[in-house]
Specification:
By secondary structure, the protein is α/β, with parallel strands linked by helices. The protein has one domain: Rossmann fold (3-Layer(aba) Sandwich). Strands 3-2-1-4 form a four-stranded parallel sheet, sandwiched between helices. The relative contact order is 0.16.
Amino acid sequence: MNPLNRILAAARSRQRHIILPEGDNPLVTEAARKIVADEIAKITLMNGPDIPGVISLTPSEAPDLPYLAQEGHQMRVAKGMTAHQALSDMKDPIMQAAIRVRLDLADGTVGGAAARTAETVRAVLRHVS
C-alpha cells in the first residue's frame, strides 16, 4: 500500500471531525463533498450550501454562539478583550472554527483557501494554542 493510501485508510478508520470555515469558496465546497463521499472525515461546512452528509453551520446564527463568545472572552479578558469583541470574533468563521477545536467540539480546522494566512494563524494563536 502506498503512503497516500495508508494515510486515507487511517483517516477513514478514525473519522475525525473537521471544520471547513470557508464554505462560500467553491473549491472548499467540492472538497467537503469528496471527503464525505470517500468517508474520510466528518465535515462541518461554515457558510456553505447544504450538502448531504455534511453539517452546515452559519457562524453568526450558531445555537451555541453565546457559549463560544463567553469562552472566548474568558480566554482573552486578561488581554483586554470585551464581551462585545468576543461575540464579534465568534461570528467570524475562521475564529469560530479555531475555538471549536480548542473546546474539543471538533478535531481540527482547515482554512486558508480564501482567508489570508495571517488571519488563519491569528485565529489559531488566539484560540487554540
